[in-house]
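Morning. Coffee machine broken again, so started the prediction first thing and wrote up yesterday's gels while waiting. Chain of 120 residues, entered below exactly as on the submission form.
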Amino acid sequence: MAKTVSIVAGLVAAAAVTYKFRDDLIHNTSDIHNRLTKANENLQVTAQDNTKTFTKRTTILESVPVLADSQRYVSEKFVPSVKHSWNEKVRDTAHTIVHTDYVGCAQKLWEDKVMSQLKK
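Came back before lunch.
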């Protein structure tokens, strides 16, 4: 029963942290996208005022290769790396929780702390 409770508690905690991280990531990505869109619109207005018009309407990510490269890096390398690392840590923690000898630890603690004091 104790192992089941520990596993369920670990899974609930991992799910809550994952959900919060996902929610924050979506919110921040949306905010950045909105700010980039506004910057692109300002750029278009400025370019039209200077009589320099773009022949092809592009998004801000296409017009700045560094942003496109960083977006590709985040989606193709960073996120899978973080996901793998996160899954490994959760798996190791769950493994430790399941395979810990709680009865033995409690018995040793009882003998070391309580029984040694009673014998004095």
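Residues 2-119 form one domain. Going to sketch it on the whiteboard this afternoon.
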